[in-house]
Amino acid sequence: MTLSISEKVGCLIIGSGPAGYTAAIYASRANLHPVLYQGIQPGGQLTITTEVENYPGYPEGIQGPEMMEHFENQAKRMGADIRYGLATAVDFSSHPLKVQIDEEKWIEANAVIISTGASAKWLGLPSEQRLNGFGVSACAVCDGFFFKGKEVVIVGAGDTAAEEALYLSKLCTVVHMVVRKNQMRASKVMQDRVLKTDNIKMYWNSVTDEILGENKVEAVRLKNSQSGELTTIPVSAFFVAIGHEPNSLIFKDYIDMDETGYIKTIPGTSKTNIEGVFAAGDVQDKTYRQAVTAAGSGCMAALDAERFLGEKGLH
Fold this sequence. Notes:
Layout: E1 5-14, H1 18-29, E2 35-37, E3 51-52, E4 62-63, H2 64-77, E5 81-83, E6 87-91, E7 97-101, E8 105-114, E9 118-120, H3 126-130, E10 136-137, H4 140-143, E11 151-155, H5 159-169, E12 174-178, H6 188-195, E13 200-203, E14 206-212, E15 219-224, E16 230-234, E17 237-240, E18 244-246, E19 277-279, H7 291-311
Parallel strand pairs: 1-2, 1-8, 2-5, 8-19, 10-17, 11-12, 11-17, 12-13
Antiparallel strand pairs: 3-4, 6-7, 7-8, 9-18, 14-15, 15-16
């Protein structure tokens, strides 16, 4: 099949969180004239975060959406061509690389940086979405500090949930941990740590029936899946730790991934198994998932792309 190419670019960046914007800043400064498509959620997960206090350079903290505006404006000032649009398909079978935008036009690129991020998995409760950013969070490391000395709930049973419960236990008076079954999925060592922590209270065979509160989280109502009994716990925050889903589906026919869809990169680089394709940020990082680490990997991807294009005589 011959694709109808609408445009040819040197460096194409897909996605616009800290990784994508940082890649755009570095690629622009290297005269790669990058084109960045912002994707379905311009600014990424930080646009649904309220206060960000752990990013260096903001001593008073900053709102997530405002921070992403700063990133975008800096990339634009450097000369990046930033556009609305969603990558909907790719053809990485040969060079130049080809990416489809909005199911309509195909772009040819000499280098592609994938920074499409990951999306937190949610329970699907209307109250969860309504109070997102007002006590509901999918990142204890990002938001736990705001609930120091308070009682909180965390939902989840894997290693991430266990790690986040332990993190919260050092800040909060009581961590109520809700587990759907009668045991956790986490590794034995993590389970032992959780169960030995005095201020983590376990709720087995339980699900969240409702998050209560008008403008902020005030309580959570749990339902025991065996007895049907409802329990209401007054809390200040509700953390969801049931996993993240990398936004990598359109690349699966070409790019090596782990069993959960995170893109594999050559250790110490942003390089994927396809020459000229680089990955940065949460789409390839299931360990740290912080704005500052995403930005760092965006820098790596731009530098790797610059070297690749230079070696190929395309820059």
